Amino acid sequence: MEMEIEGGSVTRILMGVSESTIKGHPHASISSRGAFDWTIQKIVRYNTSAFKLLFLHVQVPDEDGFDDMDSIYASPEDFKSLMNRDRAKGLHLLEYFVTRCHEIGVSCEAWIKKGDPKEVICHEVKRVQPDLLVVGSRGLGPFQRVFVGTVSEFCVKHAECPVITIKRSADEAPQDPVDD
Amino acid sequence: MEMEIEGGSVTRILMGVSESTIKGHPHASISSRGAFDWTIQKIVRYNTSAFKLLFLHVQVPDEDGFDDMDSIYASPEDFKSLMNRDRAKGLHLLEYFVTRCHEIGVSCEAWIKKGDPKEVICHEVKRVQPDLLVVGSRGLGPFQRVFVGTVSEFCVKHAECPVITIKRSADEAPQDPVDD
């Protein structure tokens, strides 16, 4: 009963990562960072050559743009500059994770898609067929979940690969637990 | 931003394992074996010294005994022999996984508890505080789930550690998909 481990192929872990929703917090969300740290510490460990991390950031086209604006009036030029700013923010987010992977010595890929995060993540699972999907979660209670929805619950049900949800630890929760 | 991996401590993975419900099939359920194989191939890989597997088998006190009997009449002695037989079956199940771990070279522990599997698994997570819980799943549709309940769904919601559900692959499903 010899166990066969596919020698050549690495374990490919897809991670859905998001920006922080906390104002003035320019980086990865608390739960995305938590999920990344957990994956490195508990799964990858020092066996860096056996794993490849795939970072997917999904931008929501409408919501993202107006969050920080005082007015909803906008010219086509405003939209264009918003879109560029969004794109820059998304790239900055991915850069954070890619840089950390380089420091640790684990190979990675990263890309941005637009759409509904839960739908896009499940679609990308179908397309890239990772061995495992890791998503962070705010760990909200049932009452809060009704209003904000949770990407992780949807992915656990619908993604076509094993899914692991890493809950944000209680001591890292911001003042408003819906923020991240 | 140096990544700290706790040098001394291994990643402890708790696996809930069950016997096959298929008649004349004396061993581990298809989904338990699938979850074990996946964990070794995709997570542990050749880094065997960095992981410890903890096998928990939960026996349901009432249901187990009568499955293979032609009659429901039983004396106290019958009950005793049933209980012994159950215990032997449970040990045999754990022996299967322990033997495979020894062959692979990954350290492990195994134990049996009585009770409702989903409740006991979550209780044991609280007690032994593993880094990760892995449970197999038959991958039933919503209609079948209503009648059989699923341990994995309960654990994803209630276990106090990250949980990974490994669905049985479609080509391994027995004639009756509720069997395992």
From TrEMBL, chains A, B:
One Pfam short name: Usp
Superkingdom of origin: Eukaryota
Gene3D superfamilies, per the entry: HUPs
InterPro entries the UniProt entry points to: At3g01520-like_plant, Rossmann-like_a/b/a_fold, Universal_stress_UspA, UspA
Residues covered by the UspA domain: 29-167
Molecular function GO terms recorded: AMP binding
UniProt-recorded name of the protein: UspA domain-containing protein
Annotated source species: Lithocarpus litseifolius
